[in-house]
Each structure stands twice: as C-alpha cells, then as structure tokens.
Write a structure and sequence with these properties.
heterodimer, A: mainly alpha, 14 helices, B: about 325 residues, mainly alpha, MetI-like fold, 2 strands, globular
C-alpha cells in the first residue's frame, strides 16, 4: 500500500517537473514574442511585413531607422525626452535628498505632519490637478515650455524620493556624524561630507526608478506642450502613428527607438528598479 | 520647552547606532533643508490638486473664472447628455478593468512567484523577462498590440488563418464585443511582472521553518500553502489590490493607443481617464467647471476607496496576528 502511494507521488512529482518549466518558459515566450516581433520587423520592409507578418529579415536594412529618426522627427523627440527626464530626475532627487535628511535624522515640531504631507503624494491621483496646473503654468508663462513640464515632473517625483531617502537616512549610524560634530562641522558640512556619500546607493535607486515613469508619461506633455519641436517620444508617437500608418517598417523602428533606452536601463539597473518596485510593500 | 527637553536627554544618552531623535538644528537650518522639496511639491502638485475642488464650484468661460455656482457643475456632469450616459458606463468599464486585471494577475502572478521561488534554472532570466513589459510606456504597449491585432496584417489573424482557424480571426479591437476583454488581456501582459515581484518579495520574507513546522505537523504542500503561506501574504494582497485599483482607475495611454481618444469602437473601451481628458480639453465653453466636477468625483472614488481598502487590510492583518 505504502509503496503504491509512494510511486503515485513520484509520478505526480515528475509530471510537475515537466509541466512547470513548460508553463514558465511558455509564459516567457508570450512576453518576449511581441518584443521580438518589433525588433525583427523593424529590419524588414513594409512589403515583406504585409506579405508575411512573422518572418526573419532577409537583409539587414536600417532604412526604417533613418526614416523614423529624420523624417518622423524621432531625433528631436528623443533629445526632448532625454533632457526633460534627466532634468526632472535631478531636480526631484536633488531637492528631496535635503528634505529627507531633515526628516530622517531629526524629530522636530511638525516633522511627523511633514512626513505625512510628503508621503500622501504616493497615493494622490495627480493628473486630476491638470486644469489648475494648466492655469498656474499659463500665468507663469510656462505653457508649451519644457521648463514647465520639468517642474511638474520633479514635483511628482518628490514624494517617492523623500520616502525612500528618509528611510535610508534613518538607518544610518550616528557615530560618524557625532565625530564630525565634535570636530566642529556645521549641519551642511555633516550632510555633504558625511551623510551624502553614505546614501549614494539609495540615490541611485531613486534616480533610476523615477526615470521610467517620466520617460513613459504621455498625459502631461499632451496637455502642457503644443509645439511639435518640444514634444517628447510618447506624444510624438501619436502623430507618428497617424502619419506613418501604412509604413509598418518605420512604425516598428520608431517603437524600438522609444523603448530601447528603458530596456537597456532595466537590464543594467535591474537591482535598483526591482528595489524601487518592491519598496512600497508593507508600508502602504 | 516641552518638546526640547526629552530630546536633550536623548542626546546625553544616545541610542546605539541610531541618530534619530537628537536635538534638531535651529529651525532656520531645518527650513533650508526642507524648503526646496516642500515648495516644489506644494506649488506644482498639492496646491493645484486642492484647487480642483474649488474650481468645481465656479462658473467657467474657457479659462476665465466666473461667479460661484454651488453644485451646478455636478448637476451638469450627471445630467447633461452625453455625459450622463458616458460617466456611469465608464465607471463600470474601470470597475470591470480592475476586477478583470486583478483576477488574472493575482492568480497568475502568485502562481509564477511560487514557481519561480522553487525554480533553479534560469530564475534571474525569467524574473527579468516577466517584469520587462512593465518598463514600457502604456501608450507604446497599446500601439505594439494594435499592430499585432491588426485585422488584415496582424500576426494573430494571419496565424489563425494559416492554421485553418479562419473562423476565429476577427477585428479584435474593431468589434465591440471583443475590444474591451482584449484591452484587459493586453493590460495583464503589461502589468503581470509587478504583482509577481511583490509576491516574490513577500514569499522570500517568510521564514523557512514555518513550512518545516507545518510539514512536521503532517500538512501537505497544498495545506501548507493554503494555511501558512497565504495568510502571511495578506499584506502583499492588500498592496497589490490597492495599487492595481489606483492604476486601473488612472488608465489612459494604453486605452488611447488601442481604442483612440473616444475609447472606440462605439465607446466599448472608453474609461474615466479618457472621459476626463475629453471633458477638460475637448469640451464646450464651460469645460473647466464640468471637468473639475468630474475630477472631484474621480478623486473621491480613487482616494476614498484606496483609503478604505488600506484600513480594511490593516484590520485583516491585525486579526491574523
């Protein structure tokens, strides 16, 4: 009796040993297939794609890339996306690191309230503020301006940066700062010379993690930017898909230009991005 | 005084390894540290968000604010055609979008997280692959799938035709009956990596001796999973549910790319995000007032329900410990 049930157990286990990898690699294939299709079809001509949507490129043609880059203004969109995203990340992280230091290292009157004020931003649906924001930027002369968009983006990045960095500052030992204090260092010197070098890993997490949603955002530039020469990649993409409707080869090249920087960033900084994605767990 | 005394005591006897609670520097120094982030965040985010409520109570002519009109804009929002039909319909769409996404991504996400934990070969590669779509812009995800699902030249239909399943080939995004379910499935492809990561982190945090203790007590793998692992994952379920809810009610670019700004075909894929955009920027002369009213309603739903859910999940957690 026992030997039979034991054997049944082994059979069950070996069935699982076959089924599980099929399931896991099968789903990986479902994830990768559309992306692979984008890469392969960007090197094929539109005629080839229409004749057979799934197929390998017969020759390596970069024509679709030059068309997307030059004629469809992707060079302009790309530069805009890059400058706007980098400037926003620098501004958000650069201001948040100071606030996070004060909130993470000290308890003072109102510090809890301030922490809640910053943290609430993790849950607020900011797009709903678009109309007051639109009028505010109009009054400041910052509609259709990359600077206006950078300020808005930086503001959306502040809550997450403060959240991660203040938690990181809180964990740091105080021996080093005490030693510096005894040597007569002021608050800014302690911050700059002692604490800032110690939070570098958290700064990397925060910066990399903010890059992704800003690079991908479509809503704010759609409303706040008008001139096509200021557009970022996602907004440019809407025009591109109308104009190049019949030129699939170029469409695939444009898609690849848009998502390649993020794929590279993700592969290079997997650790930081996964840390950022899982940071909210249990603290929500 | 009452505030400073205890912290001075703490400076005399500092907690080992912790610098928190020490006497704060003078308020001028603190203000210098806090002001830039505070001002940036307050001026460009919090203040405009609060203003939206205020805006909804006034008459608007373009971007010029008129007199106080009370709840008139809310009356327009719920009573004027076609808003009075689109708003309930889109509310239902967002709800279905949330429930559909949640059902698939929680079951699949948890399944893959569990399998990934037990898997040795290719663990890193698989995890990276599953999360990869989550890095792509929603708009780009939508455009990629609109090409794949194209009725004539898309690989889905041509493959179905090539293997003799012509009857199944259809204009997936052009047919009102299939369009919205397809949008949900595309969204699952896009998001699945995120709940998976959260579940994986939750599973990794459970000490191994719990499962060992359960198996010594005679529990099988399923019983251990059901009665030991699942309850310990309650906070993760809470986080996943709340974040999915917020994202589901904010969905915009994905649907824009798949169904256009009107959520086509025939409004089958229309959602609140698109309705809000159309009301605010493609509406009539009083658009700002009516759209502000819609913003207030959406804010109440998104923020209110996510707060309620947080409270409910934290009670659930307390009940377990």
């Amino acid at each position: 009796m026992t030997s039979i049930s034991h054997r049944a157990g082994t059979r069950k286990r070996s069935a699982a040993a076959v089924a599980i990898p099929i399931l896991m690699w099968g789903y990986a294939a479902i994830v990768l297939a559309p992306l692979l299709l984008v890469v392969l079809n960007s090197f094929r001509t539109t005629r080839e794609i229409f004749a057979d949507p799934i197929g390998l490129p017969t020759s390596l043609s970069f024509e679709s890339y030059t068309t997307a880059w030059n004629e469809a203004s992707f060079s302009q969109y790309f530069v805009n996306s890059l400058t706007i995203t980098v400037a926003s990340v620098v501004l958000a992280t650069g201001t948040a690191v100071f606030a996070a230091y004060a909130l993470g290292r000290y308890k003072f009157r109102g510090s809890t309230l301030l922490s809640i004020f910053f943290l609430s931003g993790l849950l607020l649906p900011f797009r709903l503020a678009i109309m007051p924001l639109f009028l505010l930027l109009e009054n400041l002369g910052l509609i259709d301006s990359r600077i206006g968009l950078i300020l808005v983006y930086a503001a959306t990045g502040v809550p997450f940066s403060v959240f991660i960095l203040s938690a990181y500052f809180r964990q740091l030992p105080s021996e080093l700062t005490e030693a510096a204090r005894i040597d007569g260092a002021g608050e800014f010197k302690i911050f700059g010379r002692v604490m800032l070098p110690l939070v570098r890993p958290a700064l990397a997490t925060v910066a990399v993690f903010q890059f992704v949603p800003l690079w991908n955002d479509f809503f704010f530039p759609l409303v706040l930017l008008r001139s096509t020469d200021k557009w970022t990649l996602p907004v440019g993409m809407t025009r591109f898909f109308g104009e190049f409707q019949a030129d699939w080869s170029t469409l695939f090249a444009g898609i690849l230009i848009t998502l390649l920087p993020l794929v590279i960033l993700f592969l290079v900084a997997t650790k930081q991005i996964i840390a950022g994605l899982t940071a909210g767990i249990g603290k929500m | 005084m009452a505030v400073t005394t205890p912290s001075t005591e703490r400076q005399v006897r500092p907690k080992p390894g912790k610098g928190v609670g020490r006497t704060a520097p003078p308020w001028k120094t603190l203000a210098l540290f806090l002001a830039p982030a505070f001002l940036l965040y307050a001026i460009f985010m919090v203040f405009p968000l609060a203003q939206a409520l205020f805006f909804s109570l006034f008459e608007w002519k373009g971007t010029a604010r008129g007199g106080f009109v009370g709840l008139h804009n809310f009356g327009e929002l719920f009573g004027r055609f076609p808003l009075n039909e689109q708003l309930p319909r889109d509310l239902l769409h967002n709800t279905i979008f949330f429930i559909g996404t949640m059902a698939i991504q929680v079951s699949l996400g948890l399944l893959f997280a569990v399998l990934l934990q037990g898997n040795r070969f290719g663990k890193q590669f698989l995890r990276t692959t599953y999360v990869l779509p989550f890095m792509i812009s929603p708009l780009v995800v939508g455009y990629v799938w609109s090409l794949i699902l194209n009725p004539t030249f898309g690989p889905v239909n041509t493959t179905l035709k090539a293997i003799g399943l012509d009857a199944l080939a259809r204009p997936w995004l052009g047919d009102p009956t299939t369009a919205f379910p397809v949008v949900i499935l595309v969204n699952v492809w896009f998001w699945l990596g995120f709940p998976l990561l959260l579940f994986a982190a939750g599973l990794a945090a459970i000490p191994e001796d719990y499962a060992e203790a359960a198996s010594i007590d005679g529990a099988g793998p399923w019983q251990t999973f059901r009665h030991v692992t699942m309850p310990l994952l309650t906070p993760v379920f809470g986080t996943v549910a709340i974040l999915t809810f917020i994202r589901a009610f904010n969905v915009f670019g994905l649907v824009w790319a798949l169904g256009g700004v009107d959520g086509g075909p025939a409004g089958a894929t229309d959602v609140l995000g698109l309705l809000f955009y159309r009301t605010a920027f493609r509406g009539g002369v009083d658009a700002f007032g009516v759209a502000s009213a819609l913003a207030v309603v959406m804010f109440a739903i998104i923020f209110g329900i996510s707060m309620l859910a947080r409270w409910w999940f934290s009670r659930l957690e307390e009940g377990l410990t």
